[in-house]
Specification:
With about 300 residues, the protein is mainly alpha-helical. The protein contains 13 helices and no strands.
Length: about 300
Amino acid sequence: SSKKVKEQAPSLLCLVATVGPGWVAVCGYFLIEPMGWRVFLVCTSIPLVVPAILMLHFCFGSKEEINTKPSKEITEVANGLAQCEANGYDQNPSAEDKNLIKDEEIVVPNLISRTVKASLFCAINHIQGHGAILLLPDLIRDSNQEDGIEKCGGAIHGTQYLIIAIISGAANVAGRLLGYFLKGRVSFGISQTSFAVLLAACYAFLLMKLGEVWMEVAMGIIKISFSAMILECYHIAADPSYFGTATLDTYAGISSGAAFAGTAIGMALAAFLNPYIAVVCTLVMSVVQVVVVLSMRKLR
């Protein structure tokens, strides 16, 4: 891909990914209580076929349809350099001419250190955000029990479904849009450090148990901050200036794999631990995230 496409594709991919949480949140609000979880699962699974249809229609063409011919400008430059070499001339092609013939190779120092930092950054980000998906209903049920709603173990009811839909859907979309707006306008050090500190502060705030309303406000801020930060995970995975051109696929794949592991860890913490123990564990990792972001400022 061209440089322009490489810069825009991760942002577009991240923004389109917000459609999923929004769809699930809307289906959850309108379907779970009146129709049950089986209908909910069917409706949330319908969009799975959409990407396959779009990819088959737009992305996979025959070889004849793919234009692999070099542009006229590239051909002229390449032929000129070849002619100089054949005639024995001492030529020093400009960097611009070299880039027309092939992409400039980027070699980065401290590749292992960069990969470890990127992996931690992506993994903790996914622990914070995806763990909150299950953590929010658990915290609401815990609040219901403290308020004396003992029926069905403090089950979620009424407007609480709408609150979950807003936090899981609308806050997620707002965070992605915020991250897209800040990208290129505010430096990595300022934006990501601010979000990392805000996430740690919100998880610490949850431990104060100030009531359902304040808990929901904190979870909303957590979802917005997570969604704004995840955009940087997409960009890191597609950035040859961070991983180098020759090593991009391998080491970006490692950091992306760490992100998927973070999703599993975040979900497991929320599913199998007491919600406030899960909050403490995520708070500790959020503090580590602040340190990781500070160590990455000069790399981004």
